[in-house]
Amino acid sequence: MSLYRALQGSPLILHLTVSQQAAAPRTSWTKEQISEVYNQPLIDLTYAAASVHRRFHNPAAIQMCTLMNIKTGGCSEDCSYCAQSSRYNTGLKASKIVDVESVLEAARIAKANGSSRFCMGAAWRDMRGRKTNLRNIKEMVKGVRSMGMEACVTLGMINAEQAKELKDAGLTAYNHNVDTSREHYPSVITTRSYDERLATIDNVQKAGIHVCTGGILGLGEKPQDHVGLIHTVATLPAHPESFPVNALVPIKGTPLGESKAISFDAILRTIATARLVLPTTIIRLAAGRHTMREEKQMMCFMAGANAVFTGEKMLTTACNGWEEDKAMFEKWGLRPMESHETVGGQQELHQKEDFDAQNDGVSGLGRTEPFTSSPAENIAAV
To answer: Where is this region: Disordered (predicted)?
Structure first.
């Protein structure tokens, strides 16, 4: 059954119609509706996602992001996938926070290689009692921003006051993944509740910082947990600026160290469904991308992914290098996305117009003109 026939007469058709206008993407999705999308034949699902993606984003633009571990290991949490937990014997040596200048030098190298977002991660539960660390991190943020790059941090749980301090320092985005569905979450982590994660996201949103939140695939979950993950993110008060999709990289010594790789089908379905449900959000291919052949990465880009992590390392796991990604971009007709300051897909609207103009007003599978008010015509176009 085609996507149109399966959804005809349902609230999903209305969403796909209204979302083309995208003034305020819908936040009232039900799990049943998202599941209906997720379980469509993959050929229909990816086609629809590709068309919606081209309506809101320049399909040739992929943001290059670099992630640096500014404080490694020694974390008190029990995240069952993480090499940085002090509870597991993974062979990782804990270290203190890196000095400001070393971080800024790494950011300069990233910028010189084409990255427009620099992300900084610290392995700890929260920011309580870390005033000196917070002061140094704010200097890092200011320094990265002064280079014309976006600055993102992932520092565990933060309160409203800390979020405001980071906003005042110029922070672009705060990453705080929900990891998986609410139902599967207790099987993965017990030291931090799902609601505590949502509370941090709420503090970040209220401070006016862009939210980056997504999950990890391959944690022993079922397909309905991918639906649940997307549902959590899609029903936040506002859609996040970024939705990172990680594929578990098993780390020996962790409880999930012997896990089997998640199927590519599941990765692609998650990306395509997220693109349809979160039309303006940047979808970031994160951990595990180094295991994908270029052809599979290209399928992810076609289905809606439009950012990658690139550089020497991704926290404690392998990462695709800058030169490798530049060669792939050139081969497939892609280019690095410019730094942006607005939410989701609107940041490159003027560049999309240039792209469309160069292609005689035709965006491949999609259309440049606004969709009509007819659900049947709209979904036929999708």
So the answer is: 357-382
